[in-house]
Amino acid sequence: MISSSTDALREFRDTVDWLDARSIRLYLSFSCGFLADALATSGQTQLARHYAERALARAHEGDPIGLSMAHRVLARTCGDGSSGLAVEARSHLDKAIRSAYERGSNRDAALGYLERGKLLARGGQVTSARHALQQALDTFERMGMPWHREQAKSVLRALSSG
Question: 78 and 110: one domain?
Answer without folding.
Answer: no
